[in-house]
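Support case: user asked for a sample of complex input and structure output to validate their parser. Sending the pair below.
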Amino acid sequence: MCGIIGISNHRNAAQLAYTGLFALQHRGQEAAGLVTVHQGKLKIHVGMGLVSQVFKPDAFQHLPGRSAIGHVRYATTGESSVKNAQPLLFTQSRGSLAIAHNGNLTNAQELKQKLEKRGAMFQSSTDSEVIVHLIARNTRPLEDAIIESLRQVEGAYSLLFLSSQKMIAVRDPHGFRPLVLGRLNGSYVVASETCALDLIKSKFVREIEPGEMVIIEGGYLKSLKPFAEIPKAHCIFEYVYFARPDSKLFGTNVHQVRRELGRELAREMIPPPGGSVRTINSQAPLGASLGGGMKGIKADLVVPVPDSGVPAALGFSQESGIMFEMGFIRSHYTGRTFIQPLQSLRDMGVELKLSALKEVLQGKRIILVDDSIVRGTTSRKIIRMLRRIKVKEIHMAISSPPIVSPCYYGIDTPQESELIAANHSIDKIRHYLGVDSLHYLSLKGLLRAASAGREMGFCTACFTREYPTRVSPVLKEPGSFMTDDPKGEIKAIFSKKVAATF
Amino acid sequence: MCGIIGISNHRNAAQLAYTGLFALQHRGQEAAGLVTVHQGKLKIHVGMGLVSQVFKPDAFQHLPGRSAIGHVRYATTGESSVKNAQPLLFTQSRGSLAIAHNGNLTNAQELKQKLEKRGAMFQSSTDSEVIVHLIARNTRPLEDAIIESLRQVEGAYSLLFLSSQKMIAVRDPHGFRPLVLGRLNGSYVVASETCALDLIKSKFVREIEPGEMVIIEGGYLKSLKPFAEIPKAHCIFEYVYFARPDSKLFGTNVHQVRRELGRELAREMIPPPGGSVRTINSQAPLGASLGGGMKGIKADLVVPVPDSGVPAALGFSQESGIMFEMGFIRSHYTGRTFIQPLQSLRDMGVELKLSALKEVLQGKRIILVDDSIVRGTTSRKIIRMLRRIKVKEIHMAISSPPIVSPCYYGIDTPQESELIAANHSIDKIRHYLGVDSLHYLSLKGLLRAASAGREMGFCTACFTREYPTRVSPVLKEPGSFMTDDPKGEIKAIFSKKVAATF
Amino acid sequence: MCGIIGISNHRNAAQLAYTGLFALQHRGQEAAGLVTVHQGKLKIHVGMGLVSQVFKPDAFQHLPGRSAIGHVRYATTGESSVKNAQPLLFTQSRGSLAIAHNGNLTNAQELKQKLEKRGAMFQSSTDSEVIVHLIARNTRPLEDAIIESLRQVEGAYSLLFLSSQKMIAVRDPHGFRPLVLGRLNGSYVVASETCALDLIKSKFVREIEPGEMVIIEGGYLKSLKPFAEIPKAHCIFEYVYFARPDSKLFGTNVHQVRRELGRELAREMIPPPGGSVRTINSQAPLGASLGGGMKGIKADLVVPVPDSGVPAALGFSQESGIMFEMGFIRSHYTGRTFIQPLQSLRDMGVELKLSALKEVLQGKRIILVDDSIVRGTTSRKIIRMLRRIKVKEIHMAISSPPIVSPCYYGIDTPQESELIAANHSIDKIRHYLGVDSLHYLSLKGLLRAASAGREMGFCTACFTREYPTRVSPVLKEPGSFMTDDPKGEIKAIFSKKVAATF
Amino acid sequence: MCGIIGISNHRNAAQLAYTGLFALQHRGQEAAGLVTVHQGKLKIHVGMGLVSQVFKPDAFQHLPGRSAIGHVRYATTGESSVKNAQPLLFTQSRGSLAIAHNGNLTNAQELKQKLEKRGAMFQSSTDSEVIVHLIARNTRPLEDAIIESLRQVEGAYSLLFLSSQKMIAVRDPHGFRPLVLGRLNGSYVVASETCALDLIKSKFVREIEPGEMVIIEGGYLKSLKPFAEIPKAHCIFEYVYFARPDSKLFGTNVHQVRRELGRELAREMIPPPGGSVRTINSQAPLGASLGGGMKGIKADLVVPVPDSGVPAALGFSQESGIMFEMGFIRSHYTGRTFIQPLQSLRDMGVELKLSALKEVLQGKRIILVDDSIVRGTTSRKIIRMLRRIKVKEIHMAISSPPIVSPCYYGIDTPQESELIAANHSIDKIRHYLGVDSLHYLSLKGLLRAASAGREMGFCTACFTREYPTRVSPVLKEPGSFMTDDPKGEIKAIFSKKVAATF
């Protein structure tokens, strides 16, 4: 989970990139950074924490230049350390090179071992650094070296490179992660999502295509397609949860897709007059399924788990005609950076963030809508909260199928052993959560809503275990990738607390 | 705007009070503090910033004891300085005394001058300190001294005192600010709102009544009514905006009152079949009024300004049958403590916090619902944002009457000269905001929804200029109260940045 | 132990006062502060820590004005808290008033109790605040109110007041603590020591006389002598240890007095040809005395304990002809503000600060010179260090008499029970320290060197138990003064660590 | 200028190494760090600032293990950045490796370019990293790889390596920088200076010999001499200024050498009865020389510039019979970490640190003794200070020859263009400084005192321009080494101010 942005040829490159990172903050809250190029030299500023914590007013005087790339990070590989904060910046014989990466490589470990045997030393514990070592050892010109290096890597990558001469954007041939191109007068902008283009008031031009490489230099843009064409595999979980609702993603607005997921779910759950509950059945090997029975559900309210469940709940309410209600208050004072000093409150967890409206929900039969269930622990706490205030019936409706396997392409899902739906029947989950009935959207329903009538290639591996690429066995091991990297240990001093004072 | 909490006779008094403050954070984000009593001595910990910033894990080891009072502050009088953070703690000849105050005194300045002439020296620039000086100069026992002192002050006060012996709660005879009593096994809890009782899982017992004084000592509670009975004047703005939606206030749940305000507004705006638009007319001496004409409004969506407009928009949608839609995304990464380093982004302001969903709103006719308009500047920015994405028609619906005069009882409204509705006609405001029509709820409608069929006494001074107490002319002067207090100058060093490291 | 400075009528008043405080840092390292007056308002900046820690570059923009008073504090009364950092600033009916105090009042507790009974509330736990409360309750003009108030207090005070109109300096009639007047072009400077005048390149004019009150206003200076004349009691310990060697104090340079103390000590210890060891005998009623026998001492080197023993050791060497040697290296990296993270190193203590030169001292017979012995613990550690490197003989020579009683006039000596010489014979001390012989300068010798031929009145209470004033029994109690003041508890949050970030 | 320490096989390895670094603080105040090995993994903690600032109490819980190496750094090559703080820690195919380096390589730039052409990427801008890249590309076992790598580098290096298995110490064949071996019960200690051994109470065993490699593993020590024998070149400036006076260096105590330098200087300056001023003459091609004439100098006092001039001044006084006097007070409150907020005080510079004793020096003829003159700016300020207080005659005596060329072996001398004696005659310097006469010790005198009768090989390049190794022309360029390294730019965020909060 990361977000990237690049600005080429603008006199406030760093400021614009910073503003764009602000809009991409939901893609990564652990670290942030910017690299600019000024008079042929690359300048870097990175730190742990939110964009607003990493960049203090005086940061920008150290970041002059007309081009910039930026990154927000939530660790997928590597440990939490400022050494892993991106953009990464390297000196090579051909000069300096910065890289910002969204995605995850699936053969990084093998490549890393090969490189180390040939004397390479790694300075971060990120998979992204593998790409730069491959480039460093390639003696051909930069663009060719990048192409030849990327031909060796497998997995998901939306990449931005910045050298003293040019900015280069590449998206992997599967197109796992989004990457869009924008225009701001004479400047080019590349970003993970369109919401970043909007905030800096630049115009959306088009997506960078899967397998496309875009080189921007001196105000000109050159596009290459250097990789063999393969089926697309857009991450469908970006639609379900990850992307920002106001972004236009893979051609459609995210909020609208989510609302449609809610409508689809309502249609699946509520039999049309004279019909039967459609895809909701527990025989389905994966996905849509029902704990308890559906027939005869009568509900008073559709209530979303804020904020992620709101669009689907709206769609569900609109389709079903059941009244929508905001049954929870979400506190704005419990951010990620807040470390609770009291154990008693750490145990509370979600209670500090959400409070249920007793007077509104008491005695009611509700459809509780959320986008997905990962471990089930948070959902369970929310449901207990509802039980305490005497909600009469709780029917949980999830606007995506059960998550049964981890993502190796950049979403920070836990290992299979921690995924509740990978290990338990729908009925067991229903019991664990303590709801009267539990409903998941079917895969078919998900794909229908996500495709919106178009011919689309999606990666649905987290719901289906069907990975679009080879998956190295090492990835499946607990701890994965480079956790034995001693440099990761540096984290002790570059803790969040320190970075917060940058 | 402040919140207070007291815990008597619990072994984790400080931790519970801290947790309660967390639930009261919306009542004040500028400073926070706790005082406990341990072995006859009072311990204090105060600081600038959010509760989570002021209290770090090691704070509680300095706060032992079985009783505690706490406070969150948003400055109404006095400057922003740690010297003004409450609880205030004083040594007097009868021992130590701490005070936590929600409200605002209207004759503090006169009393202060009198006291200074008699040799008193003030250590804060808050009106609350006046009370303590009066008590210090009263030689009678503490309870009597408090009563005699409070008989001299005018205005709004929900107060908590903590001495080495007892905890005392008092609410002014008008009952401006809320104050509730709760029970947690053998302990008593007093708090500004019931949401604080809920979070610490204590039971709501009843409101502390207007004019009531409650003394809690050694596990026993004593109630006195030492003041002459006068008409009640509950702050109606607590219902409109200030209190937390999940609190039960003056006998009713806040979210439900707000939803009812939306319903009422819909009824006022949309003529019943064959009827006419009811209270929406510009002849009304105050409040409900319409810029543009109402007849024939046809709207596609009811859209709240998040989060304050959500409950009223839900009610409006339910009453009118017009579809509810979340047309804005609210960022969770722009807190109060975030100081934007770039001027360009400071200018953005609300754009960083809210983004409008273009695909959802474009080409639509919307009812934009908010709870109130103060200066009008934020509303205007939001409306411009909507215009940029080509919303077809914007009809703004405000779930309270126009604010025409400042609050002297503890809500931090600006002076009259800055209140847009105090100085401009509804039609002028409509032009300024750039909406197609503008509608305020009528005072009658407001009172109907707030009273919920009961006989209630409300302070509606901000909508009507009718103040329930004498208002000293000095209060109307810009800067008010004690701004010439040199001690206020200490703020230079106790800036927010410093306090964040406490 | 404190230092004060005042600047009147200079456009860089705060900067000069700050610079002066820098030179007075040895008088107090716990807290520092400045108050300026600008356009009739008083501005304050105080914090815990060294002058260089409390004042960061942006502090001065909040301290405009042509007059300033400053203070460095090492707690004598009151606890360690930013509430006690001076100058103290108060609002009274006659306007704002700041006070900076060096010294200690001996009847503060009685006065405080009286004031509290009359309704006064104290905001610090310093004795200095008593003076301001007395002034606040006096309705006469400021100068008269100060005089009448000071007539009620007993003890030691060198004071600076700053009001919106004038700067006032007062020295108590005994003249315990120093206070000097300087001139810098058209400006007046008042400071604890001449070294502060030197650093800001102002000219020494004269001492403020004991019992004198100097009012500086509008560039003019007025001198009053409002107190009855009484015998002088200059603190002789300022000469022995406390004042800075480059200051001119009570008319003589401190380094020269200290060198003379060493010469005097040499004369006492080493019999003139044909004579006998003079004052070194244990029959002396106080002070000078010898553990072991003196006759026949033959020493190779005179070695000072750095830095306090250096001047006396130089004098001793010059008088005795025994070679002076720097036998210790003093580390410059162990300041007061350094909190050792390892217990093992905290135990080391003096070893981190001093290291003995083995090659220089091994096998030698040395005269080890220090200025005084308080508890004896540090001396003992130093001597053990010397024993470890096989110094052959150690003859300890102290350039003052044994300290037998605490100071109540502003020097932070411990209670009598902790003073080694108050409780043990010279011979016992010699055994405890582990030296071959131990020699103190006689009181007569001390007075001879300090007087330098002049008629001088000194306070020698710490050596003689003869206090120049009445001493309230409460002062002799452990913990003294105001330690039950709950406001002192505020220290928990204003810890040194916090202040370091000011 | 750096200091290193290693502890092998002790249960408090990190704590001991930390304590040792404390004693080595004078060798580097810019950054500090420790690496330990625990259960086969290397743990690191580094930061900018003093040892006491970098290591806070909780640092040690992250540094378990029985072996540790530590480093204090004052930048010689590379920029000031936490990336350059040592020990450096790397992952290689053979596992993790940490390095701590005192010294400077003279062919680092050439080696770096070669390595980068072969795909190496550097993570710091230190010369030390070159060594590790060479080792990483060597496929032989670690010890052999180190030997073969070091055979390729030229210059000065006292090195400590730490792998998961062993600690390795190496000293270059010239023996430029010191390195000593100690014993603490069953543990081995390696350190830059014996003062570190003393502080942790370990026994000095012997020097690590020039060209020696010591491998410590499992409690056993193995010594190799893998390099061809070449003439020794001990840095003579360690004796003159750099090492701590209480260390035993190259076989002799430093304080004693310095005192002897003063004696030698006195002998050179003061003609023996009937003789002539010996080596003090301006015809000498380098070094000892005299501005003004010597004959007839009559001085009242020998006064050192504290602290560096003290030992030589003592020796001078003892040899000449002229009275020694501490003519300056050195403030203990002006550390390196103190950034003066006022420009006016930054201009003061040395005045804040030193104050001259007017009463002691006024009207006197003094010999002012210092160890060396680099740029001359500080000496000039000191002399002006003396002139202001009317010192009658100032004869400056420097206990080493004129510094005429930079050090490329690890002492941070400025470029030749900034060395006053490289560009000006002794007489010109005398005028610039404003002294009555100026005297440098002759090279012959320096060598005589430093050798103390032994056969010793010294590097005297800074006094003679005779470098013991080839000196790459690139070293002589301003800015030197790797300043175009973009990673150096990271310094913007890791500024001193930040690091102070580590």
